[in-house]
Design a protein that fits this description.
mainly alpha; Arc Repressor Mutant, subunit A; Tetracycline Repressor, domain 2; 2 domains; 10 helices; elongated
Length: 208
């Protein structure tokens, strides 16, 4: 981004540009999205758009980073909601961003564009997959220290939990379409994944 927004009017223009770019880029993909169409949708001139973002690549980076930070915030809120079962809370927290069409769209686009934008891919990964993995590892290590989970398996358990949830939501949805929800209830998907995890790694099958 070249121009920094000045005052309320500038911030409104920037928000309108990012909102329009998010809708168009995530729906059409990077190559098909046109800067003129984004400017029109945002209600600004093409010159104004280029003043804020000198290239479509700059705008794409901003869109991906905004989706990533939104997902980060969503996950943080869910992870800090009190729950009697920390593993169930963890799984349900992951389901919220995994059911987000914008997240699915970015995964779909980054599967193609990632090699062109390694720094964007790294930022997106840090706010989504890696953040979830670290949160899961921390929960499993804490439970293991309390004698409520198998010791020394936190990394493996984190990968397996995320893998089960991603398959039912993210992977299948990307194949069917970003906006296509799973035919199964998301809370049930999360609960079944938790039960599978507890059966394997919990103490006597009961992790908490």
């Amino acid at each position: 981004m070249l121009r920094q927004p000045r005052g309320l009017a500038g911030r409104k223009k920037l928000k309108a540009i990012l909102d329009a770019a998010r809708r168009i880029v995530l729906a059409e993909g990077l190559d098909q999205a046109k800067m003129g169409a984004i400017a029109t949708a945002a209600g600004v001139s093409t010159a104004t758009l280029y003043a804020y973002f000198p290239s479509k690549n700059d705008l794409f980076r901003a869109v991906v980073e905004k989706v990533a930070t939104d997902v980060d915030t969503l996950m943080d809120t869910a992870l800090h909601t009190p729950d009697d079962d920390p593993i169930e809370q963890l799984a349900q927290a992951f389901m919220q961003p995994l059911n987000n069409p914008d997240l699915r769209a970015v995964f779909r686009i980054m599967a193609v564009e990632g090699p062109r934008f390694p720094e964007v891919l790294a930022t997106f990964d840090a706010h989504t997959r890696l953040k979830g993995h670290r949160a899961a590892v921390a929960v499993f290590e804490k439970l293991a220290a309390e004698g409520r989970f198998a010791a020394g398996v936190a990394e493996t358990a984190a990968r397996q939990l995320l893998g089960m949830l991603e398959h039912e939501t993210l992977t299948l949805a990307i194949m069917r379409g970003d906006d296509t929800a799973s035919g199964r209830d998301s809370a049930k998907i999360a609960h079944e994944a938790v039960m599978t995890l507890k059966a394997r790694f919990g103490r006597d099958g009961l992790a908490v």
